[in-house]
């Protein structure tokens, strides 16, 4: 069986010493973590290894020897290296050698115990795999890890084997704490041996984050406690809160901030990533909101907006009036019942008249309202967008009313017609058996039923036309609101931090590895370079998408069409029957 | 039954019509006694010509009802008949019919059904009130719909009324509810074409009288006094013929031909066809349960 030795590239030019690492017997591979230089006291080495083992729960051991720069194993050095094997007993014992400045590598594996069959050679085939220790340490292998690309022939490492390698490197971070400037009893060579990587800003942030998080978490818990107090649970407020998308968005943001500033440490990398994503999303949101705020409040744009808003509302009302007058005539040559047409048209016209007077009553205050509403943008662009969606909903309230009246009337007609059609055929709906049974009606029941059936049948086209027109208007408004909600949802749920990480540090999110052949000669160990395959963007999006917190109704297209046909209200009211489900 | 048959050949084993015994015959073997049990036309009925003519009078009556209704509507539409006259006549004939209805069987039917006079009065009030209340709506109901559409709908509905009417046959297609509803629908459609709402009201009232109340009286007349029923039918048919004659001579002649063919030719044809009937019955018939099994149902 081929023995795989994972060797960090940063140690390739290190001085001779001992190979420290972990032996993975299931994969028959040795993961070299660091090189321990001569001279050392074996007792110190054992102490260090015990410390690391205790801290990281990784079975770190001395795997073999590393000699760099000898032409041939000297006569004096040979027994010495053999002797080291006796001090640090390990099975198998690796002996890695590299010519100084040269490209000749050699590797020897000796097993102390004699093999069962004496004829088998004592030396196994060895494959040297070089890896970038820093990248492997920082990268996170994804659970749906794809098998590595077999570019280099017989490189066989299963996904679980790779996971073991990544895990070993990531967990033995303690080993990499000491650098060459430490005055320790042993000298190690690894990726940080030239100096520990650190940034003052990061250290400051780490140091400050604890108290800041505690303070903010306290504040947030105060706010959430206030929002759950009894006043908000009473009828009108709770109802408004559940219907206004601004309240929903605020609640969602509160949840996000609570998550980010919770004093508990993130348990898993996924959770950490989620926290970071949420934080970046909130920050971006607030930044965009501030930009909007500065744009709105400069150069009297609020005033212009307010001046433009009233004519727009007037214009919409006028268009609606024209539409109603068209409907009251002979729309598209349809034959409608003239009397009912006039009644409905006048009713809706009066409604528009009321609406216009209301808007004109409001017009002096619109600018102030807008100014104060504009301030909410500092809470984030999403809040401002939600507010915009609510304002649209309030300003098109007349369309909503028309839609509800039309739908109610139409619904009544449809249900009346369907039950009277059963009466017409001498049948009735049996509620207990959930089926249509035949039934003998009285003469007067039959007469009144048929009379009503005829009347409803001839009045249906008029009602249906009004319903159709107002439903289309309502759907337009709902589509605009839906677009706004989609935008808000996008900002809320886009994993910006993960995407940025993927863009700037592709190795941080690993989907697998690929191997490049460095040297392939007979008689020499096969040398491979392990490179990290970054996760595809679609996978990043799929894995790290934040849960959206909208209250959007989940309709399938079929059920939506069915509801529209039967005149049931689609959004946002629920039917009485839905609550029982 | 098999044992009573004489044994023709004592040497051969006797064939038995059973499957549970092993016999030296092929499975599809039958002997000469096979067709002995054949019976022909055991359920065929012998019809009397005049009895069939009498029964066909129900169809004639219904055709005449539709004809009279259409004729009256035409008179109203043309303005030849004042609605008050029709209302008065309808009211008088309804009262007369109501009295007759109880007089014929001396109140036995009423006792059996347990229907009080108060319920009758209530029904009448409901009819009158609703029709009167809805008549303005009926008047404007089909203003924008084309007259031809209304005519076509009415024709279809009246045809449906004739098809689904309960003439006394026991068939799946018969549905007196549907038949009555179609007639009312047709009358509402036609009434909405009349010039004023009073016309519409009286037309619909007349439709109820002729399509709902008149068949009930007919049924009772036919059951109790067949002679007077024949007279009433003849009178009704002649009046319908006369009414149609005043509108269109060709239509009246065609209608008369239709009535004659239904009441005289069709029975004659039925009796002639009866001679060609060849119904065979035998042991191969499906099993028929003749006993009353209701005691098993409990």
TrEMBL record, chain A:
Membrane among keywords: yes
Keyword Disulfide bond: no
Record-level Gene Ontology MF annotations: phosphatidylinositol N-acetylglucosaminyltransferase activity
GO biological process, one term: GPI anchor biosynthetic process
Keywords associated with the record: Glycosyltransferase, Membrane, Transferase, Transmembrane, Transmembrane helix
Regions that span the bilayer: 278-296, 343-361, 373-396, 445-469, 475-499
UniProt-listed InterPro entries: PigQ/GPI1
Name under which the protein is recorded: Phosphatidylinositol N-acetylglucosaminyltransferase subunit Q
UniProtKB/TrEMBL annotation, chain B:
GO CC terms in record: glycosylphosphatidylinositol-N-acetylglucosaminyltransferase (GPI-GnT) complex
Any Pfam family the entry gives: GPI2
Domain of life: Eukaryota
Gene Ontology molecular function: glycosyltransferase activity
Biological process annotations from GO: GPI anchor biosynthetic process
InterPro entries in alphabetical order: Plno_GlcNAc_GPI2
UniProt keyword annotations, A-Z: Glycosyltransferase, GPI-anchor biosynthesis, Membrane, Transferase, Transmembrane, Transmembrane helix
Membrane topology of this protein: Multi-pass membrane protein
Annotated metabolic or biological route of this protein: Glycolipid biosynthesis; glycosylphosphatidylinositol-anchor biosynthesis
Residue ranges of the TM segments: 49-76, 82-101, 121-138, 150-169, 176-194, 200-217, 229-247, 253-271
Protein location: Membrane
Family: Belongs to the PIGC family.
Protein's name in the database: Phosphatidylinositol N-acetylglucosaminyltransferase subunit C
Organism of derivation: Carlito syrichta
The organism's taxonomic lineage, starting at the top: Eukaryota, Metazoa, Chordata, Craniata, Vertebrata
């Amino acid at each position: 069986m081929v023995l795989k030795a994972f060797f960090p590239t940063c140690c390739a030019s290190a001085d001779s010493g001992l190979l420290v690492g972990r032996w993975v017997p299931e994969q028959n591979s040795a993961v070299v973590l660091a090189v321990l230089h001569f001279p050392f006291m074996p007792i110190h080495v054992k102490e260090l290894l015990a410390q690391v083992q205790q801290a990281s729960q990784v079975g770190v051991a001395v795997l073999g020897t590393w000699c760099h720069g000898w032409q041939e194993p000297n006569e004096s050095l040979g027994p010495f290296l053999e002797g080291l094997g006796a001090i640090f007993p390990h099975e198998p014992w690796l002996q890695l050698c590299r010519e100084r400045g040269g490209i000749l590598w050699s590797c020897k594996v000796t097993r102390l115990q004699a093999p069962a069959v004496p004829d088998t050679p004592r030396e196994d085939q060895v494959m040297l795999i070089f890896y970038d220790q820093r990248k492997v340490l920082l990268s996170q292998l994804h659970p749906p890890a794809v098998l590595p690309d077999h570019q280099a022939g017989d490189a066989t490492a299963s996904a679980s084997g790779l996971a073991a390698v990544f895990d070993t490197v990531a967990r033995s971070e303690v080993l990499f704490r000491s650098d060459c400037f430490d005055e320790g009893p042993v000298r190690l060579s690894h990726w940080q041996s030239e100096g520990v990587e650190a940034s003052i800003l990061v250290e400051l942030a780490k140091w400050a984050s604890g108290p800041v998080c505690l303070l903010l978490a306290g504040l947030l818990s105060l706010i959430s406690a206030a929002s759950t107090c009894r006043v908000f649970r009473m009828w009108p407020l709770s109802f408004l809160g559940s219907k206004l998308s601004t309240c929903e968005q605020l609640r969602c943001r509160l949840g996000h901030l609570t998550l980010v500033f919770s004093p508990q440490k993130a348990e898993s990398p996924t959770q950490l990533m989620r926290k970071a994503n949420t934080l970046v999303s909130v920050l971006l949101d607030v930044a965009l909101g501030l930009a909007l705020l500065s744009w709105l409040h400069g150069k009297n744009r609020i005033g212009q907006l307010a001046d433009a808003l009233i004519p727009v509302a007037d214009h919409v009302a006028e268009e609606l009036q024209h539409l109603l007058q068209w409907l009251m005539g002979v729309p598209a040559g349809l034959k409608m019942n003239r009397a009912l047409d006039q009644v409905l048209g006048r009713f809706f016209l009066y409604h528009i008249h009321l609406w216009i007077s209301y808007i004109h009553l409001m017009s002096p205050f619109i600018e102030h309202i807008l100014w104060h509403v504009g301030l909410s943008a500092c809470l984030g662009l999403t809040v401002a967008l939600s507010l915009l969606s609510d304002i649209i909903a309030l300003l098109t309230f007349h369309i909503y009313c028309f839609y509800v009246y039309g739908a109610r009337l139409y619904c009544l007609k449809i249900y009346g017609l369907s039950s009277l059609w059963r009466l017409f055929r001498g049948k009735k709906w049996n509620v207990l058996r959930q089926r249509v049974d035949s039934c003998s009606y009285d003469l007067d029941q039959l007469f009144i039923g048929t009379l009503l059936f005829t009347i409803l049948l001839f009045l249906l086209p008029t009602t249906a036309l009004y319903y159709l027109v107002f439903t289309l208007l309502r759907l337009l408004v709902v589509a605009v609101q839906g677009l706004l909600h989609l935008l808000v949802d996008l900002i809320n749920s886009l994993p910006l931090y993960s995407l940025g990480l993927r863009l700037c540090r592709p190795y941080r999110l690993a989907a697998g590895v690929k191997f490049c052949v460095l040297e392939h000669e007979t008689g020499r160990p096969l040398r491979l370079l392990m490179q990290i395959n970054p996760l595809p963007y679609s996978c990043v999006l799929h894995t790290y998408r934040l849960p959206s917190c909208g209250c959007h109704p989940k309709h399938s297209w079929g059920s939506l069409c069915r509801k529209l046909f039967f005149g049931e209200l689609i959004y946002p009211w629920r039917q009485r029957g839905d609550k029982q489900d | 039954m098999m044992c009573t048959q004489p044994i023709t050949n004592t040497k051969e084993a006797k064939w038995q019509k059973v499957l549970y015994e092993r016999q030296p015959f092929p499975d599809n073997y039958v002997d000469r006694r096979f067709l002995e049990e054949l019976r022909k036309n055991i359920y065929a009925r012998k019809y009397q010509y005049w009895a069939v003519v009498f029964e066909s009078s129900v169809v004639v009556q219904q055709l005449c009802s539709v004809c009279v209704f259409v004729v009256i509507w035409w008179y109203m539409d043309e303005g030849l008949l004042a609605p008050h006259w029709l209302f008065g006549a309808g009211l008088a004939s309804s009262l007369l019919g109501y009295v007759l209805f109880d007089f014929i069987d001396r109140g036995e039917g009423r006792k059996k059904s347990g229907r009080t006079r108060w319920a009758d009065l209530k029904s009448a009030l409901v009819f009158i009130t609703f029709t009167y209340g809805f008549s303005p709506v009926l008047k404007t109901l089909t203003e924008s719909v084309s007259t031809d559409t209304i005519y076509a709908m009415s024709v279809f509905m009246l045809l449906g009324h004739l098809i689904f009417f309960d003439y006394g046959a026991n068939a799946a297609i018969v549905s007196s509810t549907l038949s009555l509803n179609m007639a009312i629908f047709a009358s509402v459609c036609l009434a909405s074409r009349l010039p004023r709402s009073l016309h519409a009201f009286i037309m619909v009232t007349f439709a109820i009288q002729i399509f709902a109340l008149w068949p009930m009286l007919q049924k009772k007349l036919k059951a109790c006094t067949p002679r007077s029923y024949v007279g009433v039918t003849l009178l009704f048919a002649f009046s319908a013929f006369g009414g149609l004659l005043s509108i269109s001579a060709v239509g009246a002649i065609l209608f008369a031909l239709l009535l004659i063919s239904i009441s005289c030719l069709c029975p004659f044809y039925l009796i002639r066809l009866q001679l060609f009937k060849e119904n065979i019955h035998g042991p191969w018939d499906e099993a028929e349960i003749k006993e009353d099994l209701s005691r098993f149902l409990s």
